[in-house]
Design goal:
Layout lengths: L1 H20 L1 E7 L3 E9 L20 E10 L3 E2 L2 E2 L2 H19 L5 E6 L5 E10 L7 H9 L10 E13 L2 E4 L9 E12 H13 L3 E7 H9 L2 H6 L1 E6 L4 E7 L2 E8 L3 H12 L3 H11 L12 E3 L7 H4 L2 E3 H25 L9 E5 L8 H9 L2 E4 L18 H11 L19 H12 L1
Parallel strand pairs: 1-6, 6-11, 12-17, 17-18
Antiparallel strand pairs: 1-2, 2-3, 4-5, 7-10, 8-9, 8-10, 12-13, 13-14, 15-16
Helix pairs in contact: 2-4, 5-12, 7-8, 7-10, 10-11
């Protein structure tokens, strides 16, 4: 764990250096596509001291100067399954984006969707030595959080302080400079399977790129798809990708829960392919052109040619009605939504004051999905598109690019994380001997 703490700190420094040079690449490694965007920053990054804890590390305005996507190869369930194939796909996307931007990039910020994320809520407190809260006090309060046993082979991907309390006042965004005696904090910690992260790091290194940051797709999709009020009052973002469906819950502009379901749009395509006995590529085409989840009387009469190149004329000329197609698609879509519903229930989503749910991601574009989702999830549901980003090509403004756009916002306005602070020697809340030693050192 300490290694990851150090490498996350190193990545933050690298991100800052890349932003000062003015260009950084964004890489969204998905199951169905790999998207690469190149950002140019309009000025030197503002100094961190000027900002609050909202995004405490500096902010900067940016625009997209290069964009490219390629079909993802070698990625299953949001995790790398074939290293060589994925490396080729990443190189293809990055080179095409560099060509469009006419610049060379060395640093990328990447997001991925698999790795079985798990959420934990931690709490810690610290008695202030001086009555004014300093950055060191915030670091001590974060270090006092008791890290649960996250399991062997798992790593911490995100660790956001989501709330500070000073004496009896709670709900503080930035406690620094305020006066009090006892500082308490709540932190949201997201752990993922370490080997998945290591594979991604290794793959990006093989592409001769330096990793300057890493994020969960569920988190960045929420950042780009939820409007400010939804992030403040509490809302869930369901990012329906190709291989996985990411779920994140936001409250007071912080992510407080994340999870993922190992099912997505590719599973719907696979069902169509098996049900109609047609190739996957043809099934994907039929799904995007004629798919849906609600059948009407008209759909019995709308015939779809399955097409094919098997050489058997009878088989290649087959037709099916749209009702049959919907009959194959709907059960899988319902299963994905029901799984998402059970994850939201487990997280206690019902107890949030506002209960809006935003559907985004490529698979959310199935016609009629919002109506079906409202019935299954039992909440107010809307389809979300990512926020507009300056310079983004029209082709990359759809729901399928929610995580790529969110990653741009994450790069430019990162939220505070554990590793942004100089955590004292008992960094990963260690055993009592270290703490005792620290106490002696500080007080004698």
């Amino acid at each position: 764990m300490t290694d990851l703490y150090q490498s996350q700190r190193a990545m933050r420094h690298m991100r800052r250096a890349a932003m000062q040079r003015g260009v950084i690449a964004i890489l969204d490694v998905g199951t169905s596509k790999i998207a690469c965007l190149i950002l140019r920053f309009d000025g030197p990054e503002r100094l961190r001291e000027a900002d609050g804890v909202g995004p405490m590390a500096g902010q900067s305005s940016f625009r997209v100067i290069g964009a490219a996507t390629t079909r993802s190869r070698g990625v299953k369930f949001g995790e790398i399954a074939q290293m060589n194939e994925t490396e080729r796909a990443i190189r293809t996307a990055v080179q095409a984006a560099q060509k469009m931007a006419n610049v060379r990039v060395d640093h990328v910020i990447a997001s991925f969707s698999g790795a079985e994320p798990r959420s934990y809520g931690l709490a810690g407190e610290w008695e202030l030595q001086d009555s004014v809260v300093t950055e060191q006090d915030v670091a001590r309060a974060l270090a006092s959080c008791d890290v649960p046993d996250i399991g062997v082979g798992r790593e911490v991907l995100h660790a956001h302080p989501v709330n500070f309390a000073l004496d009896h006042r709670t709900g503080l965004g930035d406690p620094r400079g305020q006066i009090g005696n006892r500082l308490a904090c709540d932190m949201h910690l997201l752990s993922v399977d370490g080997s998945v992260v290591q594979n991604l790091l290794y793959c990006i290194k093989r592409c001769d790129l330096e990793l300057a940051g890493i994020a969960s797709s569920a988190y960045v999709s929420g950042v780009s798809s939820l409007v400010e009020d939804e992030q403040e009052l509490g809302a869930a973002c369901i990012d329906m990708g190709g291989g996985t469906t990411g779920i994140s819950i936001f409250m007071k502009k912080h992510m407080i829960y994340a999870d993922s379901v190992r099912m997505g749009g590719d599973h719907v395509t696979s069902d169509i392919s098996k049900g109609l006995q047609i190739p996957l590529a043809v099934a994907e085409k039929i799904k995007t052109k004629h798919g849906g989840v609600y059948a009407t009387g008209m759909d019995d009469r709308e015939m779809i040619e399955t097409g094919g190149e098997s050489g058997d004329w009878e088989k290649d000329r087959r037709q099916i009605s749209r009702t049959e197609l919907i009959g194959i698609m709907r059960p899988r879509v319902e299963e994905i939504l029901e799984e998402a519903r059970s994850r939201l229930d487990a997280a206690g989503f019902d107890s949030l004051p506002s209960q809006s749910i935003v559907l985004t991601g490529g698979a959310s574009q199935i016609p009629g999905l919002d109506g079906l989702a409202a019935r299954i999830l039992g909440q107010q549901v809307r389809l979300g598109r990512p926020l507009r980003v300056q310079g983004l090509p029209q082709a990359a403004t759809g729901a399928a690019f929610a995580s790529a756009v969110g990653l741009c916002l994450f790069a430019a306005h990162p939220q505070d994380e554990w590793w942004d602070f100089e955590i004292p020697s008992e960094r990963y809340p260690a055993r009592s001997i270290k703490r005792a030693f620290k106490w002696f050192k500080d007080n004698w």
